[in-house]
Amino acid sequence: MSDRSFLDWPFFEARHRELAAALETWCAAHLPVDHGDVDAACRALVAMLGAGGWLRHSGAGEGERLDVRTLCLIRETLARHDGLADFAFAMQGLGMGAVSLFGTPAQKAWLEKTRTGAAIAAFALTEPGSGSDVAATATTATRVQGGWLIEGEKTWISNGGIADIHVLFARTGEAPGAKGLSAFLMPADAAGLETVERLEVIAPHPLATLRMRGMVLPEEALIGAPGEGFKIAMSVLDVFRSTVGAAALGFARRALDEALARVKARRIQGEPLAGLQMVQGHLADMAVKIDAAALLVYRAAWTKDNGAARVTREAAMAKLYATEAAQEVIDMAVQLHGGDGVRHGSVVESLYREIRALRIYEGASDVQRVVIARSVLG
Questions:
Q1: pLDDT, tens digit (0-9, with 9 covering 90-100), for 196-220
Q2: Nearest-angstrom CA–CA distance, 218 and 221
Q3: What value does the mean pLDDT take over residues 248-274?
Q4: What secondary structure does DSSP assign to 173-239, as a single string?
Q5: Which SUPFAM superfamilies has this protein been placed in (predicted)?
Q6: In whole angstroms, what is the distance from residue 231 CA to residue 237 CA?
Q7: DSSP 15-79
Q8: 362 belongs to the catalytic site
Q9: C-alpha distances out from residue 255 to 28, 90, 266, 326, Å
Q10: What band does 262 get if pLDDT is binned at 50, 70 and 90?
Q11: 153, 324, 349, 362: which is the annotated catalytic residue?
C-alpha cells in the first residue's frame, strides 16, 4: 500500500482520515473496472460511486459547502487505483461546480441526481478557438421570448456525448471580452444540441465536440446574473484546480509503488536493482517530488476550506507542480521497468498515458506559470 503517513499532517481532521480509510477499502473491492467500452465504463463508475456514497462529496446543496480537502483525498485515492474512476468522480464535481457555488434552489435539484449517480455532468467551456483564452468565447446567448437562444460550438468536452446535464458558458455581451459571458444549465435533451464528433485521446476518456444551433434555453437556465460567467468559471476552477494536482499525486504514488516493487524483485548480476545507488537516487527523487506535490496540493485545499475567498495562486502552484512532478515520477517508473515499462497495458505504461492530459486541462502548465508570476509581481 502507498505511504499514508501524510494523513497525519495538520491539514487534515479525523473525518478526513476516516474517509480516506473507508475509500481505500471500497477501491480495493471495486477497482479497477474494464475500460474496453469507455462510455459504458464511465456510466458504470458513476453509478458505483453514487451507490457507494462518494459522489455526495462532489457537490454542495442548500446550506452546504464543498470541502476541497475531501475532494482532493477522493481524487488522489481513486487515481491511484483507476484513472477512469478519478475522471468519473471529478467530472461530477467540475460539471456541477457552478451550480454548487452559484445555483438557485431549483437548479440545485440537479445535484440530487449527479450526487447519487443518477445523472452524468459536463463542463462546457472550451471552444475550437478559445481554450486557455476564455475571454475569446464565441458561442452566443441572445435573449428571445421565453429565454435564451444559444448558437455555437464547444469542444474537448469531458463526458461529451454521455452527459445528462451541462454547464454551458456563452457570450451575452454585457461588456467586451471576459466581462460579457454568462453561465447556463443545458440538459442533454435540449432541442438543437448535437454531438458532432467524438474525440480519441491517448488515455481513452469520453470527449466530444458539441454544437448548438437554434437552441433555446429557458430564462431559469441562467446561473447567477448575466455577465458573471467568467467569474463563475474562475471560481469553479479555483476549487477544482487543486483537485487536478491531487489526481496527479495519486498517479505518482502508484508509479512509485510499482517502481519499488519492480526494483525489489528484479535482479541484476545476482543482486536486486534496489541495491544500486543510482536506482536509490532515482527513488529518492521520486519520493521528494511526491511529498512536495502533496504539501502544495493540501495547502491549497486547506486554505480554501478555512475561508479564503480565492486561492488562485495556491491552486495554480499545486496544479503546476503536482502535474509536472507526476510526469517526471511516472517517466522514471517506466525507465526502472525497462522494456516492460513500455509494454501496452502495463500499469506504468497506462499511467504514462494518463498523466499527460493533466498538464493541459483546467489551465495548461504555462497558464499556471503566468497566473503565479502575476501574483508574485503583484
A1: 999 999 999 999 999 999 999 999 9
A2: 5
A3: 95
A4: -SSSGGGGEEEEEEETT-TTEEEEEE---SS---EEEEEEEEEEEEGGGEESSTT-HHHHHHHHHHH
A5: Acyl-CoA dehydrogenase C-terminal domain-like (SSF47203), Acyl-CoA dehydrogenase NM domain-like (SSF56645)
A6: 10
A7: HHHHHHHHHHHHHHHH-----SSHHHHHHHHHHHHHHTTGGGGG---TT----HHHHHHHHHHHH
A8: yes
A9: 17, 21, 16, 9
A10: very high
A11: 362
Residue 62: per-residue pLDDT? 86
Question: Which residue carries 464511465 as its cell?
Answer: 42
Q: What is the spatial distance between Cα 195 and Cα 210, in angstroms, rounded to a whole number? A: 5
pLDDT tens string 99-158? 999 999 999 999 999 999 999 999 999 999 887 888 899 999 999 998 999 999 999 999
- The mean pLDDT value for 283-294 works out to 98
Characterize the bridge pairing of strands 181-187 and 140-144: unpaired
Residue (of 50, 43, 3, 44) closest to 24 by Cα position: 3
Element (H, E) at 147: strand 147-158
Task: Locate 360 and state its grid cell.
Answer: 493541459
Cis status, amide bond into 10, omega within 30 of 0: no
The residue-averaged pLDDT of 360-378 equals 94
Residue 195, beta-bridge partner list: 210
CA atoms of 96 and 90, how far apart (whole Å) = 10
Q: Residue 220 corresponds to which amino acid?
A: E
Q: Which residues contact 327 (CB under 8 A, 6 or more apart)?
A: 355, 356, 359
Neighbours of 278 (CB within 10 A): 8
DSSP-assigned beta bridge partners for residue 184: 168, 222
Q: What is the DSSP string of 274-331?
A: GGSHHHHHHHHHHHHHHHHHHHHHHHHHHHHHTT-S--HHHHHHHHHHHHHHHHHHHH
pLDDT in tens, 294-345: 999 999 999 999 998 889 999 999 999 999 999 999 999 999 999 999 999 9
